[in-house]
């Protein structure tokens, strides 16, 4: 009988052991695929409630950080991937003011596309041995809490798409807004899904040396609303540092897009067409509306202008060049079911049908 009791106790210990080891994954720095898929949340689904989709804190992000890890509060992190792409082998490094070395605080085997996960930060509750960026061990007592003023995180990931998005300098904060009156329609989760790819590509384009050179060295005159030449260095900075945009969709009859201040929107079909680009028109609308948001009106050729003499033309030329070299984060429709969007590349030609829709107002 006593033997049986030992066996039962032994079994119970085993069970509690295995529970502990599952539990410990929450406090470990290593997150397996299974753990992530069990504990995270798919974003921008068709059933996403308005209170989440239009919430800045839940779905807003900076164009230069579509994949990010940040403090949710002093003991929890939030991992956030705005893009429709599964990143593998994502390591998060942490720098705390009081600790000399940067160390790995989390490693995710997989960060699924358009996904977010909240969890307890490793090392908060118990002493933990971390690995520093130099590969040495770093023992730390339980941290208890983290002060957002004194900590920064940095992601390292070998994925080629991560390498591309790391080159985005445009720091604009984007959030999704409902709108829904006048010429504005109601932005849907589907619009949000596609908008993330548009801003990855356009953020990448505006941040690129190719665009910066094309813009600053453009031989024609780029003029403001009064017809005076613009200060190109200052305007370039205003594009890169545009603080925020509230994204919506435009549905008004005959209206291609709307932009001004922080408001930005194009028609739903352009957001999608834009990724599959056999068509320059959505690009033209994008560049036109974005220039409105940095203060240019219709009397400036930062918005309108003939096809050979305007900012819009520079954007289209650079996009064409980058697209045909495969040098953009997204080429092809990432939501297309039957194709591999990252292999498919249909060359586009200048002015294919750019003015086909010229009667649209923008
Ligand atoms: Zn306009």
Helix and strand layout, with pairings?
Layout: H1 2-27, E1 30-31, H2 33-39, E2 40-42, H3 50-53, H4 56-59, E3 61-62, E4 67-71, E5 76-81, E6 87-96, E7 103-111, E8 115-120, E9 128-131, E10 137-140, E11 151-156, H5 160-165, E12 173-176, H6 189-207, H7 209-216, H8 232-240, E13 244-250, E14 257-260, E15 263-267, H9 268-276, H10 281-293, H11 311-325
Helix pairs in contact: 6-9, 7-11, 10-11
Residues 288, 292, 298, 303, 362 line the site of zinc ion (ZN).
Any overview of this molecule?
This protein has 362 residues and is of the alpha+beta class. It has 2 domains: 27-165, no CATH class; 173-325, no CATH class. Helix content is 33%, strand content 21%. It contains 11 helices and 15 strands. It has helices at residues 2-27, 33-39, 50-53, 56-59, 160-165, 189-207, 209-216, 232-240, 268-276, 281-293, 311-325, and strands at 30-31, 40-42, 61-62, 67-71, 76-81, 87-96, 103-111, 115-120, 128-131, 137-140, 151-156, 173-176, 244-250, 257-260, 263-267. The strands form 4 sheets. It has a 5-stranded mixed β-sheet with strand order 3-12-13-15-14. A 4-stranded mixed β-sheet has the order 1-7-6-11. Strands 2-8-5-4 form a 4-stranded antiparallel β-sheet. A hairpin with a 5-residue loop joins β9 (128-131) and β10 (137-140). α7 (209-216) packs antiparallel against α11. It is globular. The model is unreliable at 3-24 and 339-357 (pLDDT under 50). The structure holds zinc ion (ZN). Residues 288, 292, 298, 303, 362 line the site of zinc ion (ZN).
């Amino acid at each position: 009988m006593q033997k049986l009791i030992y066996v039962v106790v032994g079994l119970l210990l085993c069970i509690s052991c295995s529970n502990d080891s599952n539990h410990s994954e929450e406090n470990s720095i290593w997150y397996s695929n299974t753990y992530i898929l069990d504990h995270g949340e798919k974003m921008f689904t068709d059933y996403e409630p308005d209170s989440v989709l239009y919430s800045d804190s839940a779905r807003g992000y900076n164009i230069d950080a579509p994949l990010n890890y940040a403090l949710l509060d002093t003991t929890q992190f939030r991992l956030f991937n705005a893009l429709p792409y599964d990143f593998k082998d994502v390591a998060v490094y942490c720098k705390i003011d009081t600790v000399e070395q940067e160390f790995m605080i989390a490693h995710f085997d997989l960060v699924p596309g358009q996904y977010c996960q909240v969890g307890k930060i490793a090392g908060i509750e118990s002493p933990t041995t971390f690995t520093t960026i130099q590969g040495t061990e770093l023992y730390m007592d339980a941290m208890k809490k983290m002060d957002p003023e004194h900590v920064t995180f940095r992601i390292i990931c070998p994925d080629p798409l991560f390498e591309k998005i790391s080159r985005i300098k445009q720091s604009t904060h984007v959030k999704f807004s409902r709108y829904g009156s006048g010429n504005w329609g109601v932005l849907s989760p589907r619009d949000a899904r596609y908008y993330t790819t548009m801003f990855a590509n356009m953020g990448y384009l505006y941040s690129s040396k190719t665009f910066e050179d094309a813009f600053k060295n453009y031989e024609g005159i780029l003029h403001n609303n009064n017809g005076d030449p613009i200060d190109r260095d200052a305007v370039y900075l205003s594009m890169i540092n545009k603080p925020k945009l509230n994204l919506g969709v435009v549905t008004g009859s005959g209206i291609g897009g709307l932009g001004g201040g922080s408001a930005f929107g194009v028609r739903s079909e352009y957001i999608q067409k834009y990724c599959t680009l056999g068509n320059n028109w959505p690009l033209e609308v994008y560049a036109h509306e974005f220039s409105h948001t940095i203060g240019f009106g219709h009397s400036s050729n930062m918005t309108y202008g003939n096809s050979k003499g305007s900012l819009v033309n520079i954007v289209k030329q650079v996009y064409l060049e980058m697209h045909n070299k495969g040098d953009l984060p997204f080429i092809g429709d990432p939501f297309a079911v039957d194709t591999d969007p990252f292999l498919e590349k249909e060359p586009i030609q200048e002015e294919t049908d750019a003015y086909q829709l010229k009667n649209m107002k923008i």
